[in-house]
Design brief:
mainly beta, Methylamine Dehydrogenase, Chain H, single chain, about 200 residues
């Protein structure tokens, strides 16, 4: 039974100023979220619902050229999110709710200040995979998928040949299948479907 009296679990900036917590997501027995600390630094936190069980996992500030992207999503016992560093640009990161388990998932476009994912790159989440738009510096912006592992993170199919960007819109996931609108030279603008594999990506 829930307590009738709400209580503060943790104040990330220890001031009367809002900490502006956002993007609360369940990761196993923890909740992960972004919040602003004293001085304006945004951090990724995890909490088990107690003060002692609430900790900062990763921080971002302009002084170190680091920042979080616009989304944070649960994927099994992980949360996946875009995070930008000076060394790698904005890439896909993951956390299991611990500091040691918070790290870059894969460097999609290797090299200093090159970005493989974007603020608006999230497409949707199926039961065991997350779809996003990525650019590896070779194929342009295309549809990618991840299961939360480096080996399970890959481009789905290169529908826009070469370095051209995919024209992508209206995504919806139904019964673990992603449907979306795109166009190519052969079919023009049509509805496509994918199960996250190249062979399973077809036009309707």
């Amino acid at each position: 039974m829930l307590s009738a009296t709400p209580r503060l679990i943790y104040d990330s900036n220890a001031t009367p100023i809002d900490s502006n917590p956002t993007n609360l997501r369940a990761v196993g027995d923890e909740v992960v979220f972004l919040a602003t600390r004293r001085g304006g630094e945004v951090s990724l936190f995890s909490s088990n619902g107690t003060l002692d069980g609430t900790q900062s996992l990763l921080s971002a500030n302009s002084g170190t050229a680091t920042r979080f992207g616009a989304w944070l999503e649960s994927l099994g016992n992980l949360a996946v999110f875009p995070y930008s560093t000076h060394a790698a640009g904005m890439e896909l990161w993951r956390t299991d709710g611990t500091e040691t388990g918070t790290r870059m998932l894969v460097d999609i476009d290797p090299g200093a200040s090159k970005s493989g994912v974007f603020d608006d790159s999230l497409v949707g989440v199926a039961s065991d995979r997350l779809y996003f738009l990525g650019d590896d510096g070779i194929h342009g912006k295309e549809l990618w998928v991840t299961d939360g592992t480096e080996a399970g993170t890959h481009i789905v199919v290169d529908l826009a040949p070469g370095a051209a960007d995919l024209a992508f819109s209206n995504p919806v996931i139904m019964n673990d299948i992603l449907y979306y609108v795109t166009s190519d030279a052969e079919y023009g603008q049509e509805i496509w479907r994918t199960d996250g594999t190249s062979a399973g990506t077809v036009v309707l």
